[in-house]
Amino acid sequence: MPANKGIGTTIQIGATTIGTLTSIVTPEISADTIESTTLDTATGYKTFVQGIRDGGEVSMTGYFDPSDTGQTALKTALDAGTVDTYTITFPFGTNTWTFTATVTKYKTGEANLSDLLSFEITVKISGKPNLGSTASGGLTALTLSGTAGALSPTFNNAKLGYAWSFTTDGSITVTPTAASHTISIYVDGVFFQTVTSGATSNAIGTFTAASSKKIDIIVYEAGKAPKTYSVMAIRTS
Fold first, then answer.
1. Would you list the DSSP string of 31-89?
2. So what's the pLDDT on residue 1?
3. What architecture (CATH level 2) is domain 141-235?
4. What is the pLDDT of residues 32-68, one digit of tens each?
5. What share of the chain is helix, strand, coil (3-state, %, to 5)?
Protein backbone atom coordinates (compact mmCIF):
# COMPACT_ATOMS: atom_id res chain seq x y z
CA MET A 1 0.00 0.00 0.00
CA PRO A 2 1.50 3.41 -0.91
CA ALA A 3 2.34 5.97 1.76
CA ASN A 4 0.08 9.01 1.94
CA LYS A 5 0.92 12.66 2.52
CA GLY A 6 -0.78 14.56 5.32
CA ILE A 7 -1.26 17.74 3.29
CA GLY A 8 -4.97 18.25 2.66
CA THR A 9 -6.10 16.71 5.96
CA THR A 10 -8.88 18.73 7.57
CA ILE A 11 -10.75 18.74 10.87
CA GLN A 12 -14.23 20.08 11.49
CA ILE A 13 -16.15 20.97 14.61
CA GLY A 14 -19.70 20.23 13.63
CA ALA A 15 -19.82 21.26 9.97
CA THR A 16 -17.28 24.10 10.38
CA THR A 17 -13.72 23.54 9.17
CA ILE A 18 -10.96 24.74 11.50
CA GLY A 19 -8.56 26.82 9.43
CA THR A 20 -4.82 27.66 9.24
CA LEU A 21 -3.65 24.42 10.86
CA THR A 22 -0.11 23.09 10.55
CA SER A 23 -0.58 19.82 12.46
CA ILE A 24 -3.34 17.55 13.74
CA VAL A 25 -2.51 14.79 16.22
CA THR A 26 -5.15 12.12 15.63
CA PRO A 27 -6.78 9.91 18.30
CA GLU A 28 -4.55 7.56 20.31
CA ILE A 29 -6.79 4.84 21.69
CA SER A 30 -5.63 3.02 24.81
CA ALA A 31 -7.03 0.51 27.28
CA ASP A 32 -6.58 -0.09 30.98
CA THR A 33 -5.69 -3.56 32.16
CA ILE A 34 -7.09 -5.59 35.04
CA GLU A 35 -4.96 -8.25 36.65
CA SER A 36 -6.48 -11.73 36.42
CA THR A 37 -3.69 -13.79 38.01
CA THR A 38 -4.89 -16.77 40.05
CA LEU A 39 -3.14 -18.97 42.59
CA ASP A 40 -3.02 -21.87 40.17
CA THR A 41 -1.24 -19.95 37.38
CA ALA A 42 1.19 -22.54 36.04
CA THR A 43 3.76 -20.21 34.43
CA GLY A 44 4.41 -17.97 37.39
CA TYR A 45 3.57 -14.91 35.27
CA LYS A 46 0.85 -12.38 35.93
CA THR A 47 -2.15 -12.47 33.60
CA PHE A 48 -4.35 -9.58 32.55
CA VAL A 49 -7.61 -8.80 30.77
CA GLN A 50 -8.51 -5.59 29.00
CA GLY A 51 -10.23 -2.92 31.09
CA ILE A 52 -11.95 0.33 30.10
CA ARG A 53 -10.86 1.87 26.79
CA ASP A 54 -10.00 5.56 26.38
CA GLY A 55 -10.37 7.46 23.10
CA GLY A 56 -7.57 9.80 24.10
CA GLU A 57 -7.09 13.39 22.98
CA VAL A 58 -6.75 15.25 19.70
CA SER A 59 -4.48 18.27 19.54
CA MET A 60 -4.14 20.89 16.81
CA THR A 61 -1.59 23.60 16.18
CA GLY A 62 -1.61 26.35 13.62
CA TYR A 63 -1.60 30.10 13.05
CA PHE A 64 -3.91 32.22 15.15
CA ASP A 65 -6.67 33.78 13.05
CA PRO A 66 -9.48 35.43 15.04
CA SER A 67 -11.54 35.76 11.85
CA ASP A 68 -11.55 32.00 11.23
CA THR A 69 -14.99 30.57 12.03
CA GLY A 70 -13.54 27.22 13.11
CA GLN A 71 -11.16 28.77 15.63
CA THR A 72 -14.00 30.94 16.93
CA ALA A 73 -16.24 27.86 17.27
CA LEU A 74 -13.58 26.14 19.39
CA LYS A 75 -13.40 29.08 21.81
CA THR A 76 -17.21 29.16 21.98
CA ALA A 77 -17.28 25.41 22.71
CA LEU A 78 -14.69 25.83 25.48
CA ASP A 79 -16.66 28.63 27.15
CA ALA A 80 -19.93 26.70 26.89
CA GLY A 81 -18.46 23.34 27.94
CA THR A 82 -20.24 21.54 25.11
CA VAL A 83 -19.51 18.08 23.72
CA ASP A 84 -19.39 18.48 19.94
CA THR A 85 -19.00 16.24 16.91
CA TYR A 86 -15.55 16.37 15.27
CA THR A 87 -14.49 14.89 11.93
CA ILE A 88 -10.92 14.45 10.72
CA THR A 89 -10.87 13.84 6.97
CA PHE A 90 -7.75 12.51 5.27
CA PRO A 91 -6.94 13.64 1.71
CA PHE A 92 -7.50 10.23 0.13
CA GLY A 93 -10.67 8.18 -0.28
CA THR A 94 -13.34 8.51 2.41
CA ASN A 95 -11.09 7.82 5.38
CA THR A 96 -12.14 9.77 8.46
CA TRP A 97 -12.03 9.85 12.22
CA THR A 98 -15.40 10.82 13.73
CA PHE A 99 -15.81 11.41 17.46
CA THR A 100 -17.42 13.59 20.10
CA ALA A 101 -15.17 15.68 22.32
CA THR A 102 -14.95 18.67 24.63
CA VAL A 103 -12.31 21.41 24.42
CA THR A 104 -9.79 21.23 27.26
CA LYS A 105 -7.08 23.65 26.08
CA TYR A 106 -7.06 26.84 24.01
CA LYS A 107 -3.81 28.75 23.77
CA THR A 108 -2.61 31.63 21.60
CA GLY A 109 1.15 31.55 21.18
CA GLU A 110 3.98 33.88 22.05
CA ALA A 111 4.09 37.22 20.26
CA ASN A 112 7.63 38.00 19.08
CA LEU A 113 9.51 39.53 16.14
CA SER A 114 10.56 36.32 14.40
CA ASP A 115 7.51 34.01 14.36
CA LEU A 116 3.90 34.13 13.24
CA LEU A 117 1.39 34.18 16.07
CA SER A 118 0.37 30.59 16.75
CA PHE A 119 -2.37 28.79 18.61
CA GLU A 120 -2.84 25.36 20.19
CA ILE A 121 -6.06 23.44 20.82
CA THR A 122 -6.66 20.17 22.67
CA VAL A 123 -9.95 18.29 22.81
CA LYS A 124 -10.73 15.27 25.00
CA ILE A 125 -12.65 12.50 23.26
CA SER A 126 -15.85 11.34 24.94
CA GLY A 127 -16.88 7.81 24.01
CA LYS A 128 -15.66 5.75 21.07
CA PRO A 129 -13.87 7.38 18.12
CA ASN A 130 -14.80 5.79 14.79
CA LEU A 131 -12.33 5.26 11.97
CA GLY A 132 -14.36 5.20 8.77
CA SER A 133 -13.22 4.01 5.36
CA THR A 134 -16.59 3.96 3.56
CA ALA A 135 -19.33 6.57 3.44
CA SER A 136 -22.39 6.38 5.69
CA GLY A 137 -25.71 5.74 3.97
CA GLY A 138 -26.97 9.21 4.89
CA LEU A 139 -30.49 10.61 5.13
CA THR A 140 -33.43 8.81 3.58
CA ALA A 141 -35.86 11.68 4.25
CA LEU A 142 -35.73 15.31 5.38
CA THR A 143 -38.67 17.55 6.22
CA LEU A 144 -38.91 21.00 7.78
CA SER A 145 -41.79 22.98 9.25
CA GLY A 146 -42.70 26.57 8.37
CA THR A 147 -45.65 28.35 6.78
CA ALA A 148 -45.62 27.99 2.98
CA GLY A 149 -42.30 26.20 3.28
CA ALA A 150 -40.52 24.87 0.21
CA LEU A 151 -37.34 22.79 0.02
CA SER A 152 -35.14 23.37 -3.02
CA PRO A 153 -34.05 21.18 -4.66
CA THR A 154 -36.36 18.27 -3.84
CA PHE A 155 -34.71 16.02 -1.25
CA ASN A 156 -32.37 13.39 -2.62
CA ASN A 157 -30.00 11.27 -0.55
CA ALA A 158 -27.06 12.20 -2.77
CA LYS A 159 -27.71 15.99 -2.66
CA LEU A 160 -26.06 17.66 0.33
CA GLY A 161 -27.07 21.34 -0.10
CA TYR A 162 -30.59 22.83 0.11
CA ALA A 163 -32.55 26.02 0.65
CA TRP A 164 -35.78 26.16 2.70
CA SER A 165 -37.90 29.28 2.24
CA PHE A 166 -40.96 30.01 4.36
CA THR A 167 -43.10 32.88 5.61
CA THR A 168 -44.33 34.43 8.89
CA ASP A 169 -43.19 31.77 11.42
CA GLY A 170 -40.73 32.82 14.11
CA SER A 171 -39.25 29.33 14.36
CA ILE A 172 -39.04 26.09 12.41
CA THR A 173 -38.27 22.43 13.11
CA VAL A 174 -36.26 19.77 11.28
CA THR A 175 -37.16 16.07 10.97
CA PRO A 176 -34.28 14.00 9.57
CA THR A 177 -34.58 10.26 8.93
CA ALA A 178 -31.53 7.98 8.82
CA ALA A 179 -31.96 4.61 10.49
CA SER A 180 -28.93 3.30 12.44
CA HIS A 181 -27.20 6.70 12.19
CA THR A 182 -26.15 9.25 14.80
CA ILE A 183 -27.78 12.56 13.81
CA SER A 184 -26.44 15.89 15.09
CA ILE A 185 -27.88 19.30 14.22
CA TYR A 186 -25.87 22.53 14.14
CA VAL A 187 -27.33 26.01 13.68
CA ASP A 188 -25.02 28.73 12.32
CA GLY A 189 -22.05 26.58 13.27
CA VAL A 190 -23.12 26.01 16.90
CA PHE A 191 -24.24 22.61 18.20
CA PHE A 192 -28.01 22.57 18.65
CA GLN A 193 -29.25 19.05 19.29
CA THR A 194 -28.82 15.32 18.67
CA VAL A 195 -32.01 13.62 17.46
CA THR A 196 -33.04 10.06 16.68
CA SER A 197 -34.08 9.00 13.21
CA GLY A 198 -37.53 10.29 12.32
CA ALA A 199 -37.78 12.54 15.40
CA THR A 200 -38.61 16.24 15.14
CA SER A 201 -36.05 18.68 16.50
CA ASN A 202 -36.68 21.39 19.04
CA ALA A 203 -37.85 24.72 17.63
CA ILE A 204 -35.08 26.58 15.80
CA GLY A 205 -35.52 30.35 16.08
CA THR A 206 -35.73 33.24 16.27
CA PHE A 207 -36.56 34.19 12.67
CA THR A 208 -37.65 37.66 11.67
CA ALA A 209 -38.72 38.84 8.23
CA ALA A 210 -35.95 38.52 5.63
CA SER A 211 -33.65 36.63 8.02
CA SER A 212 -31.85 33.32 7.56
CA LYS A 213 -30.00 30.58 9.43
CA LYS A 214 -27.69 27.81 8.21
CA ILE A 215 -28.70 24.38 9.49
CA ASP A 216 -26.19 21.54 9.20
CA ILE A 217 -27.29 17.96 9.77
CA ILE A 218 -24.38 15.56 10.34
CA VAL A 219 -25.26 11.87 10.01
CA TYR A 220 -22.97 8.89 10.38
CA GLU A 221 -22.95 5.18 11.01
CA ALA A 222 -20.38 3.70 13.39
CA GLY A 223 -17.17 2.90 11.55
CA LYS A 224 -18.09 4.94 8.47
CA ALA A 225 -17.40 8.44 7.20
CA PRO A 226 -20.14 11.01 7.99
CA LYS A 227 -22.30 12.93 5.56
CA THR A 228 -23.25 16.55 6.18
CA TYR A 229 -26.48 17.97 4.76
CA SER A 230 -26.74 21.77 4.81
CA VAL A 231 -29.98 23.75 4.64
CA MET A 232 -30.10 27.53 4.33
CA ALA A 233 -33.42 28.38 6.02
CA ILE A 234 -34.80 31.72 4.84
CA ARG A 235 -37.87 33.54 6.13
CA THR A 236 -39.04 35.65 3.22
CA SER A 237 -41.67 37.76 4.99
1. EEEEE---TT-SSS---EEEEEEE--EEEEEEE--TT-HHHHHHHHHHHHT--EEEEEE
2. 44
3. Sandwich (2.60)
4. 999 999 999 899 999 999 999 999 999 999 999 999 9
5. 5, 50, 45
Tell me the whole-structure pTM to 2 decimals: 0.82
140 neighbors 177 (Cβ within 8 angstroms): yes
Backbone phi and psi for residue 220, each to the nearest 5 degrees, phi listed first: -155, 150
Give the residue range(s) of CATH 2.30.110.20 domains in the chain: 10-32+52-132
Q: Report the C-alpha gap between 10 and 18 in whole angstroms.
A: 7
CATH topology of domain 10-32+52-132: Pnp Oxidase; Chain A (2.30.110)
pLDDT tens, 192-204? 999 999 999 999 9
Q: How far is CA 218 from CA 16, 80, 212, in A?
A: 11, 20, 19
